[in-house]
Amino acid sequence: MFTRIFGKPKQETNALATLDKLNETLEMLEKKENVLQKKAAAEVEKAKEFTRAKNKRAAIQCLKRKRLYEQQIEQLGNFQLRIHDQMILLEGAKATTETVDALRSGAAAMKAMQKATNIDDVDKTMDEINEQTENMKQIQEALATPIGAAADFDEDELEAELEELEGAELEEQLLQPAIAAPAAPVPVQAGRVPARPTYQGGRRT
User: Fold this and answer.
1) What is the spatial distance between Cα 181 and Cα 184, in angstroms, rounded to a whole number?
2) pLDDT digit string, tens, across residues 77-99
3) The overall pTM is greater than 0.85
4) What does the buried/exposed string (b/e) look like for 129-164 if buried means 16 or more CB atoms within 10 Å of the residue's CB?
5) How far apart are CA 21 and CA 5, in angstroms?
6) Cβ distance 62 to 50 under 8 Å?
7) Please, which of 46, 69, 80, 114 could form a disulfide with 62 given CB 3.0 to 4.6 Å?
């Protein structure tokens, strides 16, 4: 049990330590590669100088050393490629392990929850809820039932009385006299002015 509990953090620590070591090695190889590239470039410059000085033998020796540096550079490049591959594989394995651990934890939590929740308890709880709902429904119906004098009223008689009231209201509206409409003004023809009265001897004609 203790191995299972403390084993995972130790494995994760080992994976992180390995990745750190690979990163350090990769940086060291890159530094060496840069140094060798500078040395190879320097040998080329020396070869040019010896060529201008007509010292062919010395120029060839410089080119030979350049070739040796280039071989070491190529070898260091292969080493770096292998380290990159190892880092990618290790990171992938670490991600896979973390995913499996997470899924395992989720499955354990689900199992514990299912164990804590029994199907019989669920059925019992639902039965209690249904029973309480039915009781509350009966209580509400009992409270809504009329009591006393209101319980003796006949619904059919009340509806008939309501229909009589509606009929009387309609008959009263039909018997009311129509309100006379106001007289319309007499139109005056366009362009015609009414004649003005004249007076003769003090009388209007």
Assistant:
1) 9
2) 999 999 999 999 999 988 898 89
3) no
4) eeeeeeeeeeeeeeeeeeeeeeeeeeeeeeeeeeee
5) 26
6) yes
7) 46
